[in-house]
Amino acid sequence: MAEQAPTIYDVAERAGVSVATVSRALNDVESLRAVTRDKVMRAMAELDFVPNNVARGLSRGKNWVIGLAFMHSPVKANEAEVEADSLLYTDIIIRGVEAQAARHGYSLLLCSAGEEHPDGIAPLRNLTQSVDGWIVLDRVLNVEEVPEISRRTPIVLMAGAGDSDAAFTVRVDNEGGIASLVSHLVEAHGARRFGYMSGLEESPDNVARLRALRDATRRWGGQLNEEDIVSCDWTSGGAEVQTMRWLDRRVDLPDVLVCANDQMAVGAIHALGARGLKVPRDIAVTGFDDIPIARYLTPALTTVRQSSSAMGAEAVDVLLAAMANEPVANTTTMASRLQIRHSCGCQGELGEDVA
Amino acid sequence: MAEQAPTIYDVAERAGVSVATVSRALNDVESLRAVTRDKVMRAMAELDFVPNNVARGLSRGKNWVIGLAFMHSPVKANEAEVEADSLLYTDIIIRGVEAQAARHGYSLLLCSAGEEHPDGIAPLRNLTQSVDGWIVLDRVLNVEEVPEISRRTPIVLMAGAGDSDAAFTVRVDNEGGIASLVSHLVEAHGARRFGYMSGLEESPDNVARLRALRDATRRWGGQLNEEDIVSCDWTSGGAEVQTMRWLDRRVDLPDVLVCANDQMAVGAIHALGARGLKVPRDIAVTGFDDIPIARYLTPALTTVRQSSSAMGAEAVDVLLAAMANEPVANTTTMASRLQIRHSCGCQGELGEDVA
DNA sequence: CTGAAAGCGCTTACAG
DNA sequence: CTGAAAGCGCTTACAG
């Protein structure tokens, strides 16, 4: 069924020229005479010729492909029917990267890694010649592995990937975001005692957010009790479970539970509700990311907005610059900003953003 | 910075063998003597050799790459700061496809198309030699365009892509899902009058769901008023706006608003709330898909569950079979099933699934 | 302005 | 069991 695709040789024969000339027509070489070009073009059209990008890539040493490596969901689908949480945040980055790559004529090769595959580097290694550069999310590569790849192919690290001299990094301003969040909670709502629901502990974004929260609460004279740092895994399902456990062992809740991302805030609010606690009346809850659905939650979620798609686009720009050997900052920090809604205690038209 | 990668020639020289032998070692040809193989392997390790998959692909006529084409979000980011809705449903399919492809040793090449690019077929065409097969979502290709591609490369259509003899289709059982939903609404809640919030009108899944709803309401003696068919676009933001407009022109609401997907249900519930209408007390609302967050909404969303990741995996299986010229059904219909929660009017432990 | 030829990095009959 | 050589589909100096 799959019929043989015509090659440049078929076109050349049909047009009565050499394959070199066909190639020139294909690549808009200006030296070509219009008549010749037309002849070739006609032959291409007649044969429905499509150039083979793989062959082109091999010959030119450039594939016009960007590789994107990410972790697949850390949650196993334990409960038979419950689909694993989708990590919305990552998905939006993927789309941002894809769109920007396409804008520059690149395709995106997806490559996922998982906990179950201890050798996170193997798939990357194998594909590394198929790709002109890598964008690596999360904890796919650890610090020692980065240089091994980046020696051959430029890498941009993002979305929680650790720092490395051997690669470029695009990160979000966790510190500024958390600082303005805490400042709002203290000034507008008189919050003194803070809790934190953590993402996967090794994740650099999680580490940064926790540290930022520690700094900010100290600065504002608030407190962050060790018992109110709830270990979790970025997912709603995990947050639901961990919040229950936390409620079981704590009688004395903080004024606010700062969650390291929106999805955990969703699970936490749900668990609190199931225990008869009302947000924000009994405890405030905040998120981080501002996923599209955050404003439709009940209560609408106060969170720190970051533009994941903009980060994805930025990562592509940095990568392209690196590929072209243009000067680029080693680390790019993208702005974040406080998005006030109702889960912090602010009032407003139902569903309106307060600020 | 990007250092030259060693080739098979470097390895051959170092190991003192021919490139043919290196290639055999690479491909586990059994005729190779163990000593020879070891010699080669050592040389590879010493040089940190990684085979070039592009060259391999060219030579073998097989790239070990599956292409996935999707539409990017139909919503333009009008409101300056509001990120376009992410189409969660598509993202989950992408992940399902990626995971299954990886399981079979294939990488995924992403290729998005958009309304703004009228020639939806162009990117597919250009990449078609880089890929061993296509999975095409949504309305990327119209019926006339399918054979043009599938003549050269097998195609699996899914997620709302139209039917075509020239391709395989993986679809969800819209009819069964809607039928059991209507049956529940009628039998358990005495619903008689139905409304429908539609996805993009051209979308085959939308067409199928609307038709299924028409059939089911007729069968149950319910009614579906034309004025209660609300045109929308699959997104929460769109649903919020359209629900408002609908409320403005209708005094007499139906018993239930059946939404063509979960995201629109979210927006609709939100808009209803803003107008002081309580779900399910004043009107029931249902979704379709069962996105992970559906159970955390307030009220928890009654919806028709489909497993998008399973559909993605199935699409890969069908594609691989087609590539191998194995016999496969032209259309595969995946099961859907009613997921009862609270937005239909059912009670239960807060947050527990009712059925 | 265009063709003949070598080369991109691999694979695979064909010999031996 | 292994090597020499042609080939996968393109590109690009080098001639002319």
Structural summary, described in words:
- 2 copies of one chain form a homodimer.
- With 355 residues, the first copy, chain A, is an alpha/beta fold.
- Chain A folds into 3 domains: 1-45, lambda repressor-like DNA-binding domains (434 Repressor (Amino-terminal Domain)); 65-172 and 308-335, Response regulator (Rossmann fold), CATH 3.40.50.2300; 174-306, Rossmann fold (3-Layer(aba) Sandwich).
- Helix content of chain A is 40%, strand content 16%.
- Chain A has 12 helices and 12 strands.
- Chain A has helices at 8-15, 19-26, 34-47, 53-60, 88-103, 121-127, 145-150, 174-189, 204-219, 236-249, 262-274, 308-323; strands at 65-71, 107-113, 133-137, 155-158, 168-172, 193-197, 223-230, 256-259, 284-286, 303-305, 331-334, 337-339.
- In chain A, strands 2-1-3-4-5-11 form a 6-stranded parallel β-sheet, sandwiched between helices.
- The N and C termini of chain A lie far apart (59 Å).
- The model of chain A is unreliable at 74-84 (pLDDT under 50).
- At the A-B interface, helix 4, helix 5, strand 2, helix 6 and helix 10 of A face helix 4, helix 5, strand 2, helix 6 and helix 10 of B.
- Strand 2 of chain A pairs antiparallel with strand 2 (107-113) of chain B, so a sheet runs across the interface.
- Chain A binds a DNA duplex (16 and 16 nucleotides) through residues 7-9, 17-24, 26-27, 31-33, 36, 51-61, 129.
Helix proportion of chain A = 40-55%
Under CATH at level 1, the class of the largest domain in chain A stands as Alpha Beta
Order of helices and strands of chain A: HHHHEHEHEHEEHEHEHEHEEHEE
Quaternary class: homodimer
Radius of gyration of chain A: 26 Å
Coarse morphology of chain A: elongated
Catalogue the unreliable spans of chain A. Answer: 74-84
**Count of individual domains of chain A:** 3
CATH architectural category of the largest domain in chain A: 3-Layer(aba) Sandwich
Overall mean pLDDT of chain A: 88
Main sheet specs of chain A: 6 strands, parallel
Using the coordinates shown, work out and report the CATH topology of the largest domain in chain A: Rossmann fold
| Terminal-residue CA separation of chain A | 59 Å
